[in-house]
Amino acid sequence: MRLHPRPGTESGIRRLARQYPAALLGLLLCSTGGALAALALPAALGHTVDRLVAGGPVPWSGLLLCAALTLAETGFDAAAAVTGTSTTARLTASLRTRTAARVLAAEPRRALALPTGDLTARLTARTADAASAPVTAAGAVSGVLLPLGALVGLLLIDAWTAAALLLGAPLLVALLRAFTRRTADAGADYQRAQSLIAHRLTEALDGADTIRAARTGAHEHRRVLEPLTALAEHGRRTWAVYGRAVGTSGLLLPLLMLLVLAVAGLRLHAGAIGVGDLVAASRYASLAVGIGALTGALGALARSRAAARSLEPLLTLAPLPHRGLGPVPDAPGHLELRDVGVEQDGDPLLTGVHLTVPGGTSLAVVGRSGSGKSVLAAVAGRLLDPDTGSVLLDGVPLDGMEPARLRREVAYAFARPALPGATVEDTIAYGPWTAPPEAVRDAARAARADGFLALLPYGYATPLADAPLSGGERQRLGLARAFAHPGRLMILDDALSSLDTVTEHHVRRALDERAGHCTRVIVAHRLSSAARADRVAWLEDGRIRATGRHDELWSDPDYRAVFRTDVPTEGSVPIDGSVPAGGSVPAGGSVPAEGSVPTEGSVPTDGSVPAEGSVPASRTPVTPAAGAEAR
Q1: Helix (H/G/I), strand (E/B), else coil: 112
Q2: How does pLDDT run across 455-469, given as a tens digit for each residue?
């Protein structure tokens, strides 16, 4: 999916420029003041030289005027530099905040249509380049004012001298135009190569464990750095464009300066101008042909324009539509999916999903890898909008509910949770509202995270950077964050996959305690999670194949195969908790009472942990689905 700006949308850079009008006006005034002082100085200097040549008393007033104009030019330039730097920093921060807010407020499939690395590059380097455009444009006034003012000054001194300068004006304009166009093209190509490197680096970091296990580090190193060749080529191209412009101007400008001075010298010999006029004409000619500052400003504007074009699709992302509806007060969290369908690049991910989850109950979503479980979890809490159908929470369509109010009602936990926050406590408290310390500690106990947190150097105040966390510990922090922000709907997208069997048992008990006042949707790979849920939704190829209680579905061998990771040999005990060939289930498919000891050779289907000390010493217990996932 590609991102396109909406037609007729105002440029984000123009909106950005209006955020700090006073600072930009001050910068414009400083740049203009410095340019006017620089233009007035040659005239004052020429007049003073004429008075000195004419003899008489020393023209102290003229000398003081020249000194004052020099100081004014220096002061205005310094003020412009300070104002421009500080304003650029504030504009960059504002643009990054606005762009990130647009991305976060948009429908995720549109916001994440760009690769992660490319999106990161746009939110960092591109925003800095684009935000400098208003400051560069305001500062470029002096670059334009100086040559134009110098030409006017030459016209006032002598028309023939000004005509000599005008002979080279078309060449100067052509030089600047070609430089700007080529710099913009090279800059855009350079930025694209940067984005590709960032994307590949992000992919490699996300898959670091896989790369390490497969011993493909050298291959990934080459793959990530392969675009450096193109990046270097675009960089050389940029400098080549700049070098040609400097080289051409280095040849053209001295010749033009020499022509202006030669004509001015002839006019002095003819008595048309005086010595002071010659001095002033030489200064004006120097200002007129000194296009270095203007060249630099045009190059910066070209880079800013290319960066702004790359940001425009993000700045014009439409926020999630809604009708300002709110949740029904004190409702139990009744979830309903009506004929939900989701497609990506023309491929169906979900098709015709009809599903009802009564308020306060739990639903396990099971299925083989790629069956659409995570897509259904995303649709259920409006992390993703369906292409067809609708999703309702207590009778209110999710696409009609105001997003901020919806977020307070839906808690999510993921297999690989992001952990924002400076400390562990900040991470758990992070959410639609900042959870108080008491809620943070209660949530950590519910997620069985309090044990390892007590071992950290500063407990809950330990900085995340100083807390080396395993995959299971990260999942427990994500679960604790969900527990700390209770709503009427909790969605766990494979959020128990890295937990050991004992920890999972305790977390499921904490989830069960929320029965009646919180609806739980659990994307499950383990048999134990499905066995404990009130109902199971069995997905296959993006469709609901069946729903019902786990013990009801267990009679279907295809359902049992969802949890099977190995084909057991005759007489062996399956490690996934499935029953031996023949399909028999202990006690008619019922789940053994929690804490009871399974009969010899049997395995509890809910993954419950036998009571401590209840396992006979003569027999090694077998734990079902301990970390096993459907492949």
Answers
A1: coil
A2: 998 999 999 888 888
